[in-house]
Amino acid sequence: MVTIPEIIPPSPQLPDDPQQARSDVRLLTEGSLIQSDGYCDQPYVVIATDGAWVCVVTSSDSHEGDPSQRIISRRSLDHGLTWSEPVDVEPREGPEASWAIPLVLPGGRIYVFYTYNTDNLREVITDTGTTPRVDTLGDMVFRYSDDHGRSWSEQRYTVPMRTFDIDRANPYGGKVLFWWSVGKPEIVGDAVYISASKVGGFREEGLGLQRTSEGFVVRSENILTETDPSAITWTTLPDGDVGLRAPEGEVAEEHKLVGLSDGSLYCTYRTEVGYVGAAYSRDGGRTWTDPDFARYASGLPIKNPRAATFVWDCGDGRYLLWHHNNSNTWFGTYRNPVWLSGGIERDGVIEWSEPEIALYADDPQTSMSYPDLVHDDDRFWVTETQKSTARIHPLDPVLLEGLWSPNVSKDGLLYDSVSADQLPVELPRLQLRRGNWRVEDARAGFSFDLWLTAGSPGRILAEQRDAVGQGWILRQVDDDRVQLTLGDGRRECSWTSEAGTLHADRRTHLVAIVDGGPKLIMFVADGRLQDGGSDRLYGWGRFDPDLRGVTTADSVQIDQSVERLRIYGRPLRISEAVAAFRAG
């Protein structure tokens, strides 16, 4: 018998989608590489007086806490696009040198302060045994460079640290100090301040997780003028035997401070209860206000997991706060995306804006942290690390300006119910066809801006869907929530706002934002980005990255309770949603 092969006709060639993918400066991999070999942490930058950027990194040949952990530096002459080969600040031969923080003086000298395992301890007592992690103990030391970071002093100098109650309660009675620092030194007036964290003990054998921690500051009043490093004077603050503690819980760590216009200090730090800790000092760090949570201008506390949260001074009474806008209470993959809030100093207090997404990675399991802000030529960059790869990223000046001064924008407006018939609205596709079998992430998005009042659950507020479920729908659900559902005919994704979003006795301004970069759905209600409140760890939800397009030929349908609906063919910035509410 002769078998005749089956002939399969070729599939018809489908045309490529004409829409172009949107580049996104917030995407993690768009940044410029600083280091990607071995372990790399705290990539912090100072600008030398010769114009070069000098980056110091805590590095090792293997992983965090490895015996090869050391301090290296690199220089860049092109705003971080490329970097020189590393120079050892502290060599790999050990003992461990960790958590470097640089300072450049007006005269040009660069100091690098870090934790140094001076006594070369090889294990530490924990609650249940011992841990081989020995990189969060020892002395605070420094070296310096007088040639713009090309080489470093042969001698190492020690900064004295006064013991607190938390030190005397550790397993060694304070003879060994557990501590580390992540906050770059700050020049405030005629003094330099270094914020750091003391540790009382470690929880679990082999992990070395801090059981108790609190903040402290060392201040020098002569480092700006004294050229002999051995003659620099240091004072440990605050006064007394107790440091900067958490408003709740026993963990307050990774303190970062800035100066205010009147010489006051403001300090932020991470906690284990899901919020950013904060305190003010009005007397140079000697005493501090009672610990509280950093708060938005609305008065609500700023969410953050047990992850670094840094405040930066941007000049002219403006500040930035790095955080992660969720209230997970443990380590893990809760550091993606990164959010920034803008601060304005008013009457000695920083008022924080609603946050914007500054960075994200496509893989939700990717975390980025331990950042630094670089301010040069009226532009801003931010560094970050995933512990094995460190990068630097330019920050969008429009995004930053919106954080400090929100403005209404009509850019991308596709539809306005007060001036248009209920015609089909073509929303950008989220995935673009590139040949029969390949799709490209468009990194696009869209937004729905509504003024409305509450009605009964199940009510459809607005929709544009066809018979197979392709399109979108906004509906009121239980507890005066609003749910947005997106469908491409293959799958559906939805996210629901917080309880009490809508009100029967007054109008609500609601913006539902679909951001195809990080693949998030967000709600901004009456000028506040919903963060989940006490009911949810997150106020935002992720949608399926394989969701394609939601445009149909059907018309937009609007419920009579919706006074106005505007549809934008792009994800509005949070600041734009805030400005739209304020504009009424």
Characterise the protein shown here:
- The protein is mostly beta strands and 584 residues long.
- Helix content is 4%, strand content 40%.
- It has 3 helices and 42 strands.
- The strands form 10 sheets. Strands 29, 32, 37, 38, 39, 40 and 42 form a 7-stranded antiparallel beta sheet that branches. Strands 12, 13, 14, 15 and 16 form a 5-stranded antiparallel beta sheet that branches. Strands 21, 22, 23, 24 and 25 form a 5-stranded antiparallel beta sheet that branches.
- Strand 18 (265-271) and strand 19 form a beta hairpin.
- The longest helix is centred in the C-terminal third of the chain and has 10 residues, at 574-583.
- The chain starts with 31 loop residues before the first strand and ends with a helix.
- Mean pLDDT is 94; it is low at 1-12.
